[in-house]
Amino acid sequence: MSVDRSTADGSRGVADSPAARLQTLFEGHRLTPTQRRIAHSMVRRAADVPFLSSVELAELAGVSQPSVTRFAVALGFDGYPALRRHLREVAPAEPAADTTSYNEYQQAVEAEIENLKHLAEVLADPRPVRRAGRLLAASRPLPVLGLRAAASQAYGFAYFAAKVHPDVRLLHEGGTMLHDRIDAAVRAGATALLCFALPRHPREVVDTLAYAKAAGLSVVAVADSAFAPVAKHADLLLPAAVGTGLAFDTACAPMLLGRVLLEAMCDDLPDAQARLEEFDARAATRGLFVE
């Protein structure tokens, strides 16, 4: 789903970022899964892409060089050189700083810093997050879905959300009961579902979102990319890239985006502050925390 990336005050926002210009270029094109993978890799390395050869981009995306050529043609260019010339014309920039002197652990941290910077650019336009906050705050109950790699993101959101929202229902285990629990939430009055979707994307998540949509729920998704498989079932998709430099993906940006969503939801829950103060008072009475 596309998002309005303009800013009301005319300041530099997400529309001015290289990543946003790339996403705008890709919108409106029907891309194959391989082409979506290339697009995702380009967005993640938006500052470097105008300087990459087709072979380098293929290696970055983990695809063949002919796939990169077909991708450029699918976007309406004669070939990859024409696409690269276009990118250099519309997004002139210096190559990213050389990080070859960093060891592999430092490189993973630097990559996460870049992901967080990109998230900051996306949040320059707060309207999508505020809209998501309104949808989540209004849903009673509020189902929160996250399976496998995304289960911890869903759990963390649900843990804190339960302190301010009267009825949060965590869906972090797959199986045949998932659809039953969505049915129960709908019968209880749910109007929206929040989904955390991270690689590798389980087929069960995509199927569950399709079921939730058919049941009448609005779907807010936090995903690693605007081209993630869950995008076609999301009414509002908020992208936050994951790091891929280590054996297992890192997800600092999706976690932070989840906290931002919590903040936006609190803004639309008039009794959120009172609930937090009540919890703090009870925690003090019980001696729940050592500090």
UniProtKB/TrEMBL annotation:
GO molecular function annotation: carbohydrate derivative binding; DNA binding; DNA-binding transcription factor activity
Gene3D superfamilies found in the cross-reference section: Glucose-6-phosphate isomerase like protein, domain 1 (3.40.50.10490), Winged helix-like DNA-binding domain superfamily/Winged helix DNA-binding domain (1.10.10.10)
UniProt-listed SUPFAM superfamilies: Homeodomain-like (SSF46689), SIS domain (SSF53697)
Domain HTH rpiR-type: residue ranges: 18-94
Annotated InterPro entries: Homeodomain-like_sf, HTH_RpiR, RpiR-like, SIS_dom_sf, WH-like_DNA-bd_sf
Top-rank taxon: Bacteria
Biological processes, Gene Ontology terms: carbohydrate derivative metabolic process
Protein's recorded name: MurR/RpiR family transcriptional regulator
Organism encoding this protein: Streptomyces sp. R21
Lineage: Bacteria, Bacillati, Actinomycetota, Actinomycetes, Kitasatosporales
